[in-house]
Write a structure and sequence with these properties.
Blueprint lengths: L1 H36 L18 H27 L4 H17 L6 H28 L2
Length: 139
């Protein structure tokens, strides 16, 4: 009976992690597109696909799949390494690490840096708080 109960909890956690990653990826794509549309950043979510010669809708679909895949990997890493830590502190730590990676790639205007930091902060805090919540619900 205990083994079946553990399996039920692990299925719940696995499903919760993937749902969190997919939602976080789609929200990041949406908010980065909105930031690009309103000229807060010069980076378009589909700019990494400039070599692909397809319609804009197909490029957004491919960008969504790539961002969701990155979100799944980041969520699994968070679950494996930081799930038992305080969600806000670990989310802010992951945000700072990702920001330093993006800092070397992005344009260095203050508006863009603040916008990128805010997007990453919301993204990482969403992942960390949601996975911590799923961890608590799975107990």
């Amino acid at each position: 009976m205990s083994k079946q109960n553990k399996s039920k909890h692990s299925d719940y956690l696995r499903r919760g992690i993937f749902e969190t990653a997919i939602t976080a990826g789609l929200l990041l794509l949406l908010f980065s597109w909105l930031a690009y549309t309103f000229h807060f950043i010069n980076w378009n979510p589909i700019s990494m696909l400039s070599a692909v010669s397809s319609s804009t809708i197909v490029k957004y679909g491919i960008a969504a799949i790539l961002i969701i895949f990155i979100s799944i990997v980041l969520s699994l890493l968070y679950y494996a390494l930081l799930r038992k830590r305080k969600p806000f502190l670990s989310g802010i730590t992951v945000t700072v690490l990702l920001f330093f990676i993006v800092f070397f790639i992005a344009d260095h205007s203050p508006l863009q840096l603040i916008t990128i930091f805010a997007l990453l902060l919301g993204y990482c805090l969403f992942i960390s708080v949601t996975i911590s919540w799923h961890q608590e619900q799975g107990r």
